[in-house]
Each structure stands twice: as C-alpha cells, then as structure tokens.
Amino acid sequence: MSAARPLTTLRTIAVLAALPLVLTACGYGSDSTDDGKQPTVAAGAKKLSTDEVKIGYFPNLTHATALVGVQEGLFQKELGGTAIKASTFNAGPSEIEALNAGAIDIGWIGPSPAINGYTKSNGKNLRIIGGSASGGVKLVVNPKKIKTLADVKGKKIATPQLGNTQDVAFLNWIADQGWKVDAESGKGDVSVVRTDNKITPDAYKSGSIDGAWVPEPTASKLVAEGAKVLLDESSLWPDKKFVITNIIVSQKFLKEHPDVVEAVLRGTVKTNAWINANPDKAKAAANTALEKLSGKALSAAVIDPAWKSITFLDDPLASTLNTEAQHAVKAGLLDKPDLTGIYDLTLLNKVLKADGKAEVSDAGLGAQ
Questions:
Q1: Looking at the chain, which terminus has fewer C-beta neighbours within 10 angstroms, N or C?
Q2: Which pLDDT band, with edges at 50, 70 and 90, does 67 fall under?
Q3: How far is it, in rounded angstroms, from Cα 261 to Cα 55?
Q4: Mean of all residue pLDDT scores within the chain
Q5: Interval 93-97 mean pLDDT
Q6: What is the pTM of this model?
Q7: 13: pLDDT confidence band, cut at 50, 70 and 90?
C-alpha cells in the first residue's frame, strides 16, 4: 500500500487492522476464545426471553467489569436461567465482526472500534448502552533514550494497531506538539510503530521500539522491563476521565431481548459497585479470570500499578467519545462522522434510577 494513499474512513482502518488476522486465521472465530468453562446456571432458575446471551470482551484489565462479572457470577445472578456464553477477543475489528455476524450479542470494546462499527453500518448495527472503564493508558519510554516529552521526537513509539483508540490518541498528541506524522505509514517526526500488545514487551526488550502509548497491563509490563511512565493519558482530559471501554449491543438483540440487556446492565452496575467497594478482591478476581484465559496470572509488579490507573464506572463519558472521534478526523483517519443515535442509555438509566444512582448523559448522541 502506498504511504501517500489517504485514509478517509475508519472502514479503511478496520480492513487494514484486521488484514493480518484474516490472512493468518480467517475471521472473527480465529481471534476469539471460548474455553468451554462457562458460568453455571442455577438449577430451576427462571429464563428470560432467550436461552442464552453471547457476550464478548478482551482478556485485558480495562475490560475488568466483564472479567470480574463473569468470574464472580454477578452477571449470571441477574440473568437467572438465561445462560451466558462468553468469548474473548484480541482486537476490536474482530469483535465488531462477531457482533455483525451474530456470534456475540453484547460486547465490551474501546471507543474507536465502536465508532467504526457504527459508521461502517450507517448507524444500523450497534448501540452503546453503557460505560465500563476510564483511564489505564500511558506513554512509557526507555529512560536512557527519552527523558522529557520533547525527546519523543525522532524516536520509535509503538501503538497497538493502526486507527485503534491509543493510535488515535497518540497521533493527536503528536499533532498538539506541532510535529508531523503521516497517519497511514506512521513515518514523520516520530516513527509510530503499530505493534500487537502481546509482542510489545519483546519489541521493547530487543530495542526495536523506544517506548509505547498503550493500555494496561501492557504499560506496566513495559515498566517491569525497565521502562518509565512519561505521560498518563488521563492528565490530558478534563477531570482526568476519558472512555476506554464501552458496552455495546447488537440493535437486533436490543430490540428482541430488552429484558436480557437490562439484566446484563444490572449485572454491570453491581459489578462496578463491587469492584470499587472491594478493590483488592476485585483485582484478584480479574487476575484469576486472566489466568484461566491465558494460562498465566499477572505478577504483582504488573497488576498493582495497572489496576490503580483504571477507574471503573457506569457512565459512558459520551462527550469524550465525541472528542475522540474529532481526534480521528484531525489525524486524517476519519471523515467527520454523524454519531447521532450511537447511544441508547434508556435501560442503563432505568437500572441506575432503580439503584438510587444518578442518571448519565448521552451528550446529545442518543437514539431518537
């Protein structure tokens, strides 16, 4: 692909980002995991309007609401006799593909894939129905090569994927410094090296990158290898809050099974409350879930600082999603999108009100 060829929509980004997955493994199923160890439905429990709900999320601390909610049975308790079928994904494009194919009904996902999925389908395939997490993204660097923010110029910095949430954030930060980078090729005053989070620590150890703008726990894994945190992205946002994980649903599933969606949202609200009231127990539960999924738990040196940098909340922080979309437009990765209708917070606000909590805003981007 020519470096001069412009990226005008996140549809193009999704194709580019998903291409290695397609070439190596053909489709969303190859990038998801179902280990067969699904939550147990209590005997005699009453089913809702469907036998099962298929949920998807990443084996990632920023998706801890899902990790903990499944691990601790908090989702299943609200769903009664409707079973959960859980799958995990390593990339947003594959999860969106799974949602489109009906392989999952509800998913936890970052803002850029959600925007992409919505605009690709002309607003017909998904809705954001709740928030899950804020923060947990850092610029970590080799302290021998980079001592100040100005030193980032001329260096090789990794982001997880072309056009993903962290890639957009880093490109926007670069532009704010007055530096120039070609968004597609990553070449310019900074070399933006798109690198899968799974191999970023090895890339850092080998010296092929000088740092990375990445989510947790990748950032703390790099710190454990000797990197230093140069910038926490939360410092760039009002009130130090920005959406990193949303909850999305297939519009078809939302229309056909609102009772199930409401039950999952009750589970997420209760899970977030439990996480915030029991941070150490929740951290351990998330690590247990990660160990089941990956075969290896995170060390205390990694999970402790990573966990502290993430805020778990029900509010989708809708205004920050709109800002993130503007950042993608500014970077040349997205035509100005119409995000009206991307949110439907009706059921979440119903759950919050019943729980005596304040309702949350869709920032004028709600379904009409």
A1: C
A2: very high
A3: 11
A4: 89
A5: 91
A6: 0.86
A7: very low
**Nearest Cα to 93, choosing from 166, 174, 6, 17?**
17
Place of tokens 């998330």: 286
Q: Report H helices in the chain.
A: 10-25, 64-71, 74-79, 92-101, 111-120, 165-176, 200-206, 218-224, 251-256, 258-277, 279-294, 300-308, 318-330, 346-354
Structure tokens at 327: 């950042």
Q: Give the burial string for 38-73 (b: 16+ CB within 10 Å, else e).
A: ebebeeeeeebebebbbbbbbbbbbbbbbbbbbbbe
Cis peptide before 93 (omega within 30 of 0): no
Q: What Rg do the C-alpha atoms of the chain give, in angstroms? A: 20
**Residue position matching structure tokens 């997420």:** 268
Which residues are CB-neighbours of 24 under 8 A, at least 6 positions away?
Answer: 30
Condensed to tens digits (0 to 9), the pLDDT of residues 48-62 reads 999 999 999 999 899
Helices 279-294 & 258-277 angle (0-180, nearest 10): 120
Please name the helix (run of DSSP H) or strand (run of DSSP E) that holds residue 83, with its range, or none: strand 83-89
Would you state the pLDDT for residue 194?
96
Q: What is the pLDDT of residue 334?
A: 85
Q: CA separation (Å) from 15 to 2, 120, 124, 338?
A: 15, 11, 19, 21
181: which DSSP letter?
B
Phi, psi angles (nearest 5°) of residue 49: -80, 0
